[in-house]
Amino acid sequence: MPKDNAATQTVQRIANILRCFSAGEPEIGVMQISRATGLHKSTTSRLLSSLEAEGWVAKNPETRKYRLGLEIVNLAGTVLEQIGLRQAAQMHLRELADLTQETINIAVLHGDECINIESIKSPHAIQYAGQLGRRNPLHCTSTGKILLAYMSAEQRQQRLTPPLRAFTPHTITDLAELEENLMQARAQGYAAAYDEFDEGLSAIAAPIRDFNEQVIAAVSISGPSFRMGAEQSQLYAAHLLSASRRISNQLGYFANP
What we know:
Blueprint: H1 3-18, H2 30-37, H3 41-53, E1 57-59, E2 66-68, H4 70-100, E3 103-110, E4 113-120, E5 135-137, H5 142-149, H6 153-159, H7 175-188, E6 191-194, E7 201-209, E8 215-224, H8 230-250
C-alpha cells in the first residue's frame, strides 16, 4: 500500500475509534470497539495504546475499558471558546472599528506564536491587513506582548528562547528590556508595538478574559505608524480598554470591586 494511502487509512481508523465514544457509552472495551469499527482486535488495541500515549484516550485501571482523554477536552474547549469569543466580540469590534477607523484584530495564543481569529479592516486606502489565520511572533507584536504579559514567568520563559529575532531596528531583543516592557503593559492595561514587527506599522492590544479570569485572547488596534504613533495610540487606549472589558463581560468575566 502506498505511504499516503496507509497514513490516510490510519487516520480514518483513529477517527472511527473516537466516534465510538458517546454520552451513552463513555467507556468502551477493546472488543466492543473492534466490533463497532470492523478492525481486528490487535489493530484496535495497538491504536488505542497510541491514542492513550498521546492523551486522546485514557484506560480505566479497574474496568480495563477506555474513555476519551483530557487532550480531547482541551481541544474541544479551545474550539468552543473561540466560537464563543468571536460571537461575543462582534458588536464591540465593529464599534471599535467605527471609532478608530483602523484595523481591529482578535488573536489567540498558538504555541510560540499568536494567530488572528477575527479581523475588521480599516476603511483607509493605507491600512494594516490583518488576515485571518495569520501567525505572528509574540515578542514584537502588541497582541503577542499582551498575551506574554499575563503569562506566568515560567510560561514566558518557555516561549522566549534567546536570541530573540530582530524583525526591524526597533524590535526588542533583550529579555530584561522586554520584561520591563511587559511590566508596563500590565500596569497600564495594554501593550504597544511601534515599528517592532513591520517597519511603518504600529498597534496596541488589550487582554480578553473569560469567566475563570484567564486571559484567553487579545484585541488590538493596528495601523500605519504615521496614524498610530504613541500620542494617537494613547487616545485610542481608552476605547480599546472599554472594548476589551465589554467583550470579557460577555464571556462572564467581571472584575472584583
